[in-house]
């Protein structure tokens, strides 16, 4: 626990309300496809809002931002640029 549960909960509530509004508007204007697009946009905006909050408040890079930045050669090392693939041949699906 980081002490930021209240902020996360309020952001989640705001995201849920935006989701309901976007679903209603999209469904009224364009039917089921509009509702789906509205929900997808509301979820994307909610995730971006949470990522911005995490970056500013906790000073860490969340999720995909960290993964993309860790692929730089300077972050991983010039010899092990494909560090995530080096043992890929040892994995097998049963």
Defining key terms:
mainly alpha, 3 helices
What would you note in describing this structure?
There is one protein chain. The protein is mostly helical and 94 residues long. It contains three helices and no strands. The chain has helices spanning 5-57, 63-69, 73-76. The two termini are 37 Å apart.
Strand-pairing-aware structural class = mainly alpha
Average pLDDT taken over every residue: 78
* Overall geometry: flat
| Count of DSSP H/I helices | 3
Strand content: under 5%
Uncertain stretches of 5 or more adjacent residues: none
Q: How helical, in percent, are the residues?
A: 55-70%
What's the count of strands?
A: 0
Largest sheet at a glance? Answer: none
Encode the helix/strand succession as letters: HHH
Radius of gyration: 19 Å
Distance between the termini: 37 Å
Report a brief summary of the structure:
The protein has 94 residues and is mainly alpha-helical.
């Amino acid at each position: 626990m980081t002490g930021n549960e209240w902020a996360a909960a309020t952001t989640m509530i705001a995201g849920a309300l935006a989701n309901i509004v976007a679903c209603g508007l999209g469904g009224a204007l364009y039917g089921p496809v509009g509702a789906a697009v509205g929900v997808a946009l509301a979820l994307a905006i909610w995730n971006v809002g949470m990522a911005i909050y995490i970056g500013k408040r906790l000073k860490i890079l969340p999720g995909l931002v960290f993964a993309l930045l860790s692929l730089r050669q300077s972050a991983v090392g010039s010899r092990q640029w494909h560090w995530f693939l080096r043992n890929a041949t040892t994995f097998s699906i049963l």
